[in-house]
Each structure stands twice: as structure tokens, then as C-alpha cells.
């Protein structure tokens, strides 16, 4: 079973990335020449990977079963 510390680490990292995405959207709308496309794409990809982990974590928690990640 996954320990609570690791769960909180992933939760905080994904929240951090989520706020970064909001910051990029804000900067894109307010700054005339915001062009950090590589950083934005990689940040969205990393956030999607965190979301994928939390999806499987939530399903295992909901079903009260051991966490199984697809390999």
C-alpha cells in the first residue's frame, strides 16, 4: 500500500503544477510576448501524469483495494 507521505507529496506536486498552469494562462493573456511553449507543454504533460496517478489512486481508494498501476 502506498504510504500517506508519498500521497501528500504527489498531491502537493500536482497542486504546484496546477497553479503553474494557471500562471501561464494569466501571463499569456496579460503579457504581449509570452512565448515559453516548451515549458508550458512539458508542464501540462507532467500535470497529466500526476492526474493519471490520482485517477488510479482514487479508484483503488473507492473500491477499498490495493493500488495497482498499469505497467
TrEMBL record:
Keywords: Endoplasmic reticulum, ER-Golgi transport, Membrane, Protein transport, Receptor, Transmembrane, Transmembrane helix, Transport. It comes from the Eukaryota. One of its GO terms (molecular function) is ER retention sequence binding. It is found in: Endoplasmic reticulum membrane. GO terms for cellular component: endoplasmic reticulum membrane. GO terms for biological process: protein retention in ER lumen; protein transport; vesicle-mediated transport. InterPro entries: ER_ret_rcpt. It is a multi-pass membrane protein. The chain crosses the membrane at residues 37-59. The keyword Transmembrane applies. Belongs to the ERD2 family. This is ER lumen protein retaining receptor-like protein.
Amino acid at each position: 500500500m502506498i504510504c500517506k507521505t508519498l500521497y501528500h507529496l504527489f498531491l502537493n506536486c500536482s497542486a504546484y503544477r496546477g497553479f503553474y498552469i494557471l500562471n501561464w494562462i494569466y501571463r499569456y493573456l496579460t503579457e504581449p510576448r509570452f512565448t515559453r511553449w516548451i515549458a508550458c507543454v512539458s508542464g501540462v504533460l507532467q500535470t497529466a501524469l500526476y492526474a493519471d496517478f490520482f485517477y488510479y489512486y482514487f479508484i483503488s481508494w473507492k473500491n477499498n483495494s490495493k493500488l495497482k498501476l498499469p505497467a
